Amino acid sequence: MSEEVRFKSVVGPELAGSIDLPEGEVRGWGIFVHGFTLGKNSPAASRVSKQLAREGIGMLRYDNLGIGESDGDWGDGSFTVKVQDSVRAANLMAERGTPADLLVGHSWGGAAAIAAAAEATGVRAVATIGAPADPSHVEHQYDAVVDCVLSEGQHEWFVGGRTLVLKRAFVEDVRRARLHDQVRELDRPLLVMHSPTDDTVDIANAGEIFRKARHPRSFVSLEGADHLLTARGQAQRAAHIISAWADQYIHASRPAGKDVGCRSNRGVVDQAARLGALSRCWVTV
Predict the structure, then answer these.
(1) Handedness of CA 130, 132, 135, 136 (dihedral sign)
(2) DSSP one-letter code for 11
(3) Cβ atoms within 10 A of the Cβ of 284, count?
(4) pTM of the model
């Protein structure tokens, strides 16, 4: 079961979201930040969120500016806008009395989730799936038109069966974005998940994020998964692992005056194994 919601982007237009309501005992709440030109109904966003809801974690997934059912022009967005709209999403969850404990980001959304976590109300843990270590990684997707964009101010870009307008301000914002400092200063438990056969964002990005992150940090190899998690059962497997890992952070009561509670990782592997979801590579150091 889901609840449809709308909230304003930091640049004004309304964004459309769906909250997948938790089944059974409510363990916590979270937000899913989708990839570059994807949306809330993309396989990764929809399947991971719905599986987490089945396991008691209600999830808000929403369309970014100009995507899916959201208003506005995609070209008026940027990495900064995506980050700030993730913060707006956390504000919405807090206002409805279900503050988001967990921030999950896929692909470019994983980078945005890391950058948004410090400002996102209530967030106590962050999980990324196939995230780039540098937001400018996406430029290779539009490198054929980037010179025209910079010289003319904007240019049409055909991607995913549709035409988007890419603007100079978007490109320049992405080039200015620096994720390394946000990773070092995250001050939240971080789960980095990546497939070794990801041919869109190389797994070396996961290694870079993991090395720069402070404790507690964990890495899981999503063996056999493609970047978009379209193969049968892969999104659900990722959700199982996130659910097990996040339990120690979202299930405990919130300490007075604090948003973050970090405890030992002992027992997380056992719980994941019971779910039958643990990948071959789980590293926590």
Answers:
(1) negative
(2) T
(3) 17
(4) 0.88
Instruction: Provide the β-strand partners of residue 163.
Output: 158
Q: What is the DSSP string of 209-242?
A: HHHHPPSSEEEEE-TT--TT--STTHHHHHHHHH
3-state secondary structure of 66: coil
**CA-based nearest residue to 112, from 70, 74, 76, 81:** 81
**Contact between 210 and 192 (Cβ < 8 Å):** yes
Backbone angles phi, psi at 4, to 5 degrees: -85, 135
Q: Provide the edge-to-edge strand list for the sheet that holds 14-20.
A: 2-8, 14-20, 57-62, 28-33, 102-106, 125-129, 190-194, 217-221, 282-284
Per-residue confidence of the chain (285 residues) as pLDDT tens digits?
899 999 999 999 999 999 999 999 999 999 999 999 899 999 999 999 999 999 999 999 999 999 999 999 988 999 999 999 999 999 999 999 999 999 999 999 999 999 999 999 999 999 999 999 999 888 888 888 989 999 999 898 888 788 889 999 999 999 999 899 999 999 999 999 999 999 999 999 999 999 999 999 999 999 999 999 999 999 999 999 999 999 999 865 554 444 433 333 333 443 444 444 444 445 554
DSSP type of residue 9: -
Q: At residue 247, what is the residue type? A: D
For residue 99, cis peptide bond before it (omega within 30 degrees of 0): no
146, 147, 151, 153: CA torsion to nearest 10: -10
Looking at residue 131, the DSSP 8-state letter turns out to be -
Residue whose C-alpha is closest to residue 192's, from 252, 282, 72, 70: 282
Query: Tokens at residue 280, please?
Result: 């071959």
